[in-house]
């Protein structure tokens, strides 16, 4: 039988009827109603003293404390003392059980990765580690469990899905006075559960507001193109650092682990115009790159050509200078020889000059004495043809075909030229 059984259940097992509608209320052991103060049976309330005595007797019978006299009315004094003693034992047992149950209610279990926070009369008392713990039961102490290993997250600019935008949070102004739409998520965990519970009224909302404040400050100091393209990682990192500084200043007990950019774009109302501007910028960059590539191709070639021309000019200058110097030296040497033997030196110079001229020009035979039409013979061609014929005869055993000579073209003598030729001939003869 349980010691903390309710009174109604105990009375039912003892056979007692506690209902006010019970017709046996107020009857004695023989079944006769008591006549109190001249009232008729059934007119007064039940006899509570008799009910209490019956309850104690049955309870003592269950616990082995029955009256040893066997005569309920023989010794009224001893019977009353036994009943009081039995009632005291019962109340003490029930009180002891109630105290044990009350003390047991102070036990609690903290899971791994969690911290237990114990308060005494609502004020922070101490922390408990993972495992089985005990505190003083209500109303003295209370406990609360906080998960410090869980990675929590808050969303700024959207809720649940990136398409579910929150324009009030996501729209912000850049340094170049452009509006930009940013959605990002913040991951954090707890480093101080006591500060997390008691330093801020709504800690999660505090983290969201701090994230929104930090991102607005970072974006407000940056250009729009920087935030949209090459500066996303830099903006996320700076936002994380600034958030941690603000949260530490608030003593929130949170540690920011990561800031993830979910979407960075211009507002939807100007998206088309912004795309056109981006395409124009891309075309500009492409044309600039093409021009730079052409310049990188043509400029080295021009520089190489210019350097080659400079080298050639330098070589030509050196050649002309050296030739002039050589000619001057040769002229000086010829002058010295000429002064020694003028006639011989003059004839030698004339022969060398004529040899140099005739070696690089076609040979013409002119009949200056006859007065008929002059015919010239291409001696150089005849000589070359004769040499080719002899070579062919040497290589081929069969006789080669006869060479066909073209008739010479008639020329008319120039009297001035003829006169100059005769004068030059007379000059040579006189020399």
UniProtKB/TrEMBL annotation:
InterPro entries: Band7/mec-2_domain, Band_7, Band_7/SPFH_dom_sf, HflK, Membrane_HflK_N
Biased composition annotated in UniProt, kind: Basic and acidic residues: 24-42, 414-431
Gene3D superfamilies linked to this entry: Band 7 domain
Biological process annotations from GO: proteolysis
Organism from which the protein derives: Pseudoduganella lurida
One function term, GO molecular function aspect: peptidase activity
Function, as annotated: HflC and HflK could encode or regulate a protease.
Start and end residues of each Band domain: 105-278
GO annotation, cellular component aspect: membrane
Name the UniProt record assigns to this protein: Protein HflK
Quaternary structure and partners: HflC and HflK may interact to form a multimeric complex.
